[in-house]
Amino acid sequence: MTSLVAVASHIPEATVPVAAFLREHGIPEPRVRMYERFFGFDRIPLDPAAGPADLLVAAANGLPDFAAYRPRIRYVIQARTMPVVAPHPVNPLAEACRRLGLEGATAICLTQHACASGLLAVEVAGELLAADPDPQALALLVAGEKAFTTAGKVLADTGVMGEGAAAVLVAAGGDRDRMLAYATRTCGKFHRGAWLDEELTAAFHDEYPALLAEVIDAAVRSAGLDLDDIALILPHNVNRMSWLRVLRLLGVRGADRLFMDNLAGCGHCFGADSFINYRTAVDAGRLRPGDRYLMTSVGLGATFSAMVLEH
């Protein structure tokens, strides 16, 4: 059964106020206040001196005993939101592999699910490792990006992008953080993502809570559980108002099981959110051995994904 061997995150120390960031990118003042007061964003981490590969390397080097695991890593999978993250011929994944001493591993980029590619990468890693002849083989998943356009830095009426990154070691088997179920659904009518027309944008915001709730319910049921069995939800960090609607549809009273501690200070870190939230939650003692928990993510385009794991 696919399991997470280790998870590390990297959050740049330098941050900027969300209000200043939004104004810089032309967001009108009433919208700025909405992002702060209703969506819950306060500051986002930004490191102007770091390149895309720097974020990935920093996250991977944060994994405990990474040097000991390195010889067993057969696959390196970058889960990213945007198909193009650097000008040709720059290749951040190849650079990261070189700096991490992983030139011999098979390197793969997944972008098809946008911000939900992180959960897809766990599923793909598990399939690759299950077919690998070496039962000790591992996959290294890395996620986190640097946006270089306004459209990539600010999601209209949804979220603000931060520069956090995560690294995850995945094994084909194990007795901790085992993946119990994975569910995903792509709603193709919203395939233009941030470039939807006004009518489809309104429809996306209207249908979003129900689509996410359906995928969460599908993952939980596939694991043979119900929502009462889920100790913690590790979400993608988009506005808290949308999450309250999702919880109502799921019949979850209150938001005490929704882990949003990182939203105000990290923003939405592309496909790395759930793993960053995992690291923070574990360090804070929010997950105990045997707890079942849920990771979620939604990628523009529009892909809704949920994964159930057992700590």
Short description:
The chain has 311 residues and is of the alpha/beta class. The chain has two domains: 3-171, Thiolase/Chalcone synthase (Peroxisomal Thiolase, Chain A, domain 1); 178-310, Thiolase/Chalcone synthase (Peroxisomal Thiolase, Chain A, domain 1, 3-Layer(aba) Sandwich), CATH 3.40.47.10.
Q: What's the topology here?
A:
Elements: E1 3-10, E2 15-17, H1 18-24, H2 29-37, E3 43-45, H3 52-61, H4 66-69, E4 73-79, H5 92-100, E5 106-110, H6 117-131, E6 138-143, H7 150-153, E7 154-155, E8 159-160, E9 165-171, E10 178-186, H8 198-222, E11 230-234, H9 240-250, H10 263-266, H11 273-283, E12 292-299, E13 303-310
Parallel strand pairs: 4-5, 4-6, 11-12
Antiparallel strand pairs: 1-9, 2-3, 6-9, 7-8, 10-13, 12-13
Helix pairs in contact: 1-2, 3-5, 8-9
